[in-house]
């Protein structure tokens, strides 16, 4: 399977990779749905909403500070680093991620589209202006926007919110123009991201799914790799480098 895949994709120049929670899980990123401790009493849907922030911004920021603290020791896994190597191999490369943990940036991937934002960034709750803060947010003294005086919130897409139209339009554009499209560790059920592999397929791309389980897009994939990304993608990079060196 690996040899056939490498021979199939090696002539192509434009690659798009879509990643989901599966690749982050391999790094031990918490799901934040545990039943232990204070935050186990809440569901993410009860905290990651604009209505929750408007009603009790202090509690929401306490939760996000806790999440950021938990993730301080989480590092990119071999799957993240392999994707960073893929960017160097293809002439044109775009990574589209549904994850907000910033691990792809730590792995030094450059061209990244973060569909759902980034948990380490902040923005104004009213005007959406980016707000750079190096220190932790004090829940009892939440900074306000210097433009409109709105309260600062995490720069992530909350439940019930629309994705940034410019970001999702770019994701669809890159998917339409891909020669090769990798779907890595995503359940393929959260839209609009779940539509991207189909868009790529309909525009002639070779679709490769790397997922330990089958998903709703498995049937359309040219290759389904039932493996963890951290195990398979480094092997793929090794084979691609062999071809490059023999070139």
Structure characterization notes:
The structure is a single chain. This protein has 10 helices and 9 strands. The chain has 2 domains: 2-28 and 76-116 and 163-246, Rossmann fold (3-Layer(aba) Sandwich), CATH 3.40.50.1220; 38-73 and 124-156, 2-Layer Sandwich (SIR2/SIRT2 'Small Domain'), CATH 3.30.1600. The relative contact order is 0.20. The mean pLDDT is 92. It starts with a helix and ends with a helix. It has a 6-stranded parallel beta sheet, with helices on both faces. A 3-stranded antiparallel beta sheet has the order 5-4-6, covered by helices on one side. By secondary structure, the protein is of the alpha/beta class. The protein has helices at residues 2-9, 21-25, 44-47, 50-55, 57-70, 78-89, 103-106, 165-176, 196-202, 229-246, and strands spanning 14-19, 92-97, 112-114, 117-124, 130-131, 152-156, 180-184, 206-210, 223-225. It is elongated. α6 (78-89) runs parallel beside α10 and α8 runs parallel beside α9.
